């Protein structure tokens, strides 16, 4: 629009978006103070699906808490489990066989692709294009089938164990994954042709919801949101863990900071994940998937431990305070969506409601992970 | 006189049946089309290829409770869905399907369709306003500004065609285009004139009929990811059903008008066997295009929509009007 609109603070009404609204994809509530179709102020209200995951950890032993991790961000559950097992392994000094590390990286990256595919479909649906969702879910179905065969579940995985894995991968999985990588490359080309370069989509995303690098740092935003604003930070590269240093992959970074930049970052991340999967399959060593010696009961020595991993939505950190007991004294989850979401209040002022909801889609919010 | 009255009554009943059947089966076609575009089967459960889905849906809608929420403006709330459906049925009375199949041809048929067509925006405004729902209100305000913005270029392009045909009579407009596809108004050559903007006119008219019927990518009135369901958020049962059917009836009217004004009505593309079947084929091709567009493009925003109308479509159509007038005067 050509001229900036001067908003009238005394001629507003309050629009309650959510907790049940098609665009919030969950139970997020946004109290918008509107001047016509322009947003004067927006207040996010969270906590509708709070389940006290952090408190639950204090009453459970370390292995018992494993399934909880996949209930945070149900779309990229694998990365959250990865963060937790890494934290406990580091603290309890449990050795992990190399094969297990590679399989972990492969499955985490597959899960990242499936998470981004859901975002892609849901985001374009927020913009009013329904069909890409079906195509994205079709591709995602292949990942879910592959992971189901290995892990036993389709969404809320509990595949990683301290020091290893629940189950070894077989040749079918490796074959299937190679086939999937080929298929996914083709699909991504199609998505770029049909969606990324669509005029209406570009017009709706370019320059909409600009988030500066300074703002990202102020709110602690990470992941594709920060990388779309020119912050070159990825936990896999900056604080390497597991076998990620062995892989050759790029971190897509864009400086524009608008919704289109975030869109492109995620689309390119899928390509990079495919590269990691391919390399992982090539390098996959033989050997055991669980350590020979594993303590019967996991007890962490007293202390304060923090580990971060790159989840689908940003840097997921887990801090464990142990007093040497069978369960943690305190467990703190740093979930990326929680930080990313708080950008919304400040960034959406003066935006049209349609643009604001597109902007919200580009932040890729998963509400259960935010509320924990 | 009495014979005419009976004729009109019969025509209205047939028109209602035609509109209802079309609305019901366009929903089926839309769902099948969406399925085809999205690599899935669409409805399959009821009847062969899911063909019994529309009656089942209809029965479901009718047996639902008709809920009138507290706080709504009751009279307007009840009238609005009726008003959404009524003009579309009346419009069918003057639409000629072929030389003989027309309920009641009047010499200002085109004008009448536009008059009734503009009433649908009124229905949306009434429905949205009386609902006392903020989403509905935003939606109805959007719908009105959209209807105003898109009726103007639509009317101007229609006037261009009327000038070429020299009549507001839909029959006459079709007759002027008969004799093969090269006589249709969509082409730049008209009666010895070379009017380069005629294909653009056709596109403008088509885009406007998309916007007039609130179809994607211009479905801002019921933008579900922003406004939940827009003006019919508070409607249930057949109140919603009437709005829904009205939308599909408007699609059929839009396709009929486009066919009559630009694609030669029931005229055969090769000048052979003109008849109602050509008309049917043409409108369903257009309707399929409507469906195709809906499931392919994302939605625009209200401001880019208005910009498109006021800054692009209206100037082009006005220029075309002047050009056509000048050419008709000179030659």
Name given to the CATH architecture of chain A? Orthogonal Bundle
- Count of separate structural domains of chain A: 1
What Rg of chain A is obtained from the alpha carbons, in whole angstroms?
21 Å
Number of helix segments of chain A?
15
User: What is the SS-derived class of chain A?
Assistant: alpha+beta
Main sheet: strands, sense, barrel of chain B: 2 strands, antiparallel
Biggest chain pair interface = A-B, 28 and 28 residues
How far is the N terminus from the C terminus of chain B? 43 Å
Pairing-aware structural class of the strands and helices of chain B?
mainly alpha
Number of helices of chain B: 12
Task: Name the shape of chain B in a single word.
Answer: globular
Order of helices and strands of chain B: HHHHHHHEEHHHHH
Mean pLDDT, all residues of chain A: 86
Please give the structural blueprint.
The complex is a heterodimer of chains A (372) and B (331).
Chain A lengths: L12 E5 L11 E7 L2 E8 L7 H6 L7 H4 L7 H16 L5 H29 L4 H21 L8 E2 L2 E2 L5 H26 L2 H7 L7 H7 L3 H5 L7 H4 L20 H25 L19 E9 L2 E9 L7 E5 L1 H6 L1 H5 L5 H11 L3 H5 L1
Antiparallel strand pairs in A: 1-2, 2-3, 4-5, 6-7, 7-8
Helix pairs in contact in A: 3-4, 4-5, 4-11, 4-14, 5-6, 6-11, 11-14
Chain B lengths: L1 H36 L15 H11 L10 H21 L14 H9 L1 H12 L3 H32 L4 H7 L12 E2 L2 E2 L3 H15 L11 H4 L9 H26 L13 H19 L7 H29 L1
Antiparallel strand pairs in B: 1-2
Helix pairs in contact in B: 1-2, 1-3, 1-10, 2-10, 3-4, 3-5, 3-10, 5-6, 6-8, 6-12, 8-10, 8-12, 10-11
Structure, briefly:
Chain A contains 15 helices and eight strands. Chain A is α+β, with helices and mostly antiparallel strands.
Describe the protein.
- The complex is a heterodimer of chains A (372) and B (331).
- Helix content of chain A is 48%, strand content 13%.
- With 372 residues, chain A is of the alpha+beta class.
- Chain A has one domain: Cytochrome-c3 Hydrogenase, chain B, CATH 1.10.645.
- In chain A, strands 1-2-3 form a three-stranded antiparallel sheet. Chain A has a three-stranded antiparallel sheet with strand order 6-7-8. Chain A has a two-stranded antiparallel sheet with strand order 4-5.
- In chain A, β4 (160-161) and β5 form a beta hairpin.
- In chain A, α4 packs antiparallel against α5 (131-151) and α4 packs antiparallel against α11.
- Chain B has 331 residues and is mainly α.
- Chain B has one domain.
- In chain B, a hairpin with a 2-residue loop joins β1 (189-190) and β2 (193-194).
- The longest helix of chain B has 36 residues, at 2-37.
- The radius of gyration of chain B is 20 Å and the shape is globular.
- Chain B starts with a helix and ends with a helix.
- The chains are: A alpha+beta (372), B mainly alpha (331).
- Chains A and B meet through α4, α5, α7 and α14 of A and α6, α9 and α12 of B.
- Chain A: NDH-1 is composed of 14 different subunits. Subunits NuoB, C, D, E, F, and G constitute the peripheral sector of the complex.
- Chain A: Keywords: Cell membrane, Membrane, NAD, Quinone, Translocase, Transport, Ubiquinone.
- Chain A: It is an enzyme of class 7 (translocase).
């Amino acid at each position: 629009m050509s001229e900036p609109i001067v908003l009238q603070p005394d001629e507003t009404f309050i629009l309650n978006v959510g907790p049940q609204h098609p665009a919030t994809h969950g139970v997020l509530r946004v109290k918008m103070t509107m001047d016509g179709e322009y947003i004067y102020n927006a207040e996010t209200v969270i906590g509708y699906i709070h389940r006290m995951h952090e408190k639950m950890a204090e009453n459970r032993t370390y292995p018992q808490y494993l399934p909880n991790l996949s209930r945070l961000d149900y779309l990229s559950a694998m990365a959250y489990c990865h963060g937790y097992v890494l934290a406990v392994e580091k603290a309890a000094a449990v050795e992990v066989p190399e094969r297990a590390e590679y399989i972990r990286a492969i499955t985490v990256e597959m899960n990242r692709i499936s998470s981004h595919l859901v975002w892609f479909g849901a985001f374009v649906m927020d913009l009013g294009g329904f069909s890409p969702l079906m195509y994205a879910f079709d591709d995602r179905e292949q990942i879910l089938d592959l992971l189901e065969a290995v892990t036993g579940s389709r969404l809320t995985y509990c595949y990683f164990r301290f020091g290893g894995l629940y189950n070894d991968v077989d040749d079918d999985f490796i074959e299937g994954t190679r086939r999937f990588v080929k298929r996914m490359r083709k699909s991504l080309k199609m998505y770029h042709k049909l969606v990324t370069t669509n005029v209406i989509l570009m017009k709706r995303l370019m320059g909409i919801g600009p988030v500066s690098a300074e703002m990202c740092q102020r709110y602690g935003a990470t992941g594709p949101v920060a990388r779309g604003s020119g912050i070159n930070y990825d936990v896999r590269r900056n604080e390497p863990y597991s076998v990620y240093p062995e892989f050759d992959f790029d971190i897509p970074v864009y400086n524009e900071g608008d919704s289109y930049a975030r869109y492109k970052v995620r689309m390119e991340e899928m390509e990079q994940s495919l590269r990691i999967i391919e390399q992982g399959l090539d390098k996959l060593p033989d050997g055991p998937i669980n350590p020979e010696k594993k303590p019967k009961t996991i007890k962490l020595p007293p202390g304060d431990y923090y580990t971060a991993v790159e989840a689908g939505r940003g840097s997921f950190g887990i801090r464990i305070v142990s007093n040497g007991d069978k369960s943690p004294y305190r467990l703190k989850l740093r979930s990326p969506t929680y930080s990313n979401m708080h950008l919304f209040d400040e960034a959406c002022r003066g935006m049209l409601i349609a643009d604001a909801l597109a902007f919200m889609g580009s932040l890729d919010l998963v509400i259960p992970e935010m509320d924990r | 006189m009495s014979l005419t009255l009976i004729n009109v009554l019969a025509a209205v009943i047939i028109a209602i049946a035609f509109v209802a059947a079309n609305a019901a089966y366009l929903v089926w076609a839309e769902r099948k089309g969406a399925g085809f575009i999205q690599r899935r089967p669409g409805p399959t459960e009821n009847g062969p290829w899911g063909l019994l889905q529309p009656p089942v849906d209809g029965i479901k809608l009718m047996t639902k409770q008709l809920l009138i929420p507290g706080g709504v403006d009751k009279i307007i709330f009840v009238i609005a869905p009726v008003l959404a459906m009524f003009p579309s049925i009346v419009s069918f009375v003057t639409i000629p399907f072929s030389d003989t199949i027309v309920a009641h041809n009047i010499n200002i048929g085109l004008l009448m369709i536009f008059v009734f067509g503009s009433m649908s925006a009124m229905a949306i405004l009434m429905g949205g306003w009386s609902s006392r729902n903020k989403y509905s209100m935003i939606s109805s305000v959007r719908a009105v500004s959209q209807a105003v913005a898109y009726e103007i270029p639509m009317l101007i392009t229609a006037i261009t065609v009327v000038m070429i045909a020299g009549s507001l009579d839909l029959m006459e407009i079709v007759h002027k285009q008969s004799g093969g596809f090269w006589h249709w108004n969509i082409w730049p050559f008209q009666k010895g004139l070379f009017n380069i903007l005629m294909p653009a006119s056709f596109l403008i008219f088509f885009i406007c009929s998309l916007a007039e019927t609130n179809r994607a990518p211009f479905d801002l009135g019921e933008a579900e990811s922003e406004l939940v369901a827009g003006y019919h958020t508070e409607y249930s049962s057949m109140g919603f059903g009437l709005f829904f059917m009205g939308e599909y009836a408007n699609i059929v009217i839009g396709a009929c008008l486009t066919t009559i004004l630009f694609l030669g009505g029931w005229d055969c593309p090769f000048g052979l066997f003109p008849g109602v079947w050509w008309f049917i084929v043409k409108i369903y091709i257009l309707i399929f295009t409507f469906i195709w567009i809906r499931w392919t493009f994302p939605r625009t925003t209200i401001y880019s929509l208005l910009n498109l109308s006021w800054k692009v479509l209206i100037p082009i159509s006005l220029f075309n009007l002047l050009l056509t007038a000048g050419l008709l005067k000179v030659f």
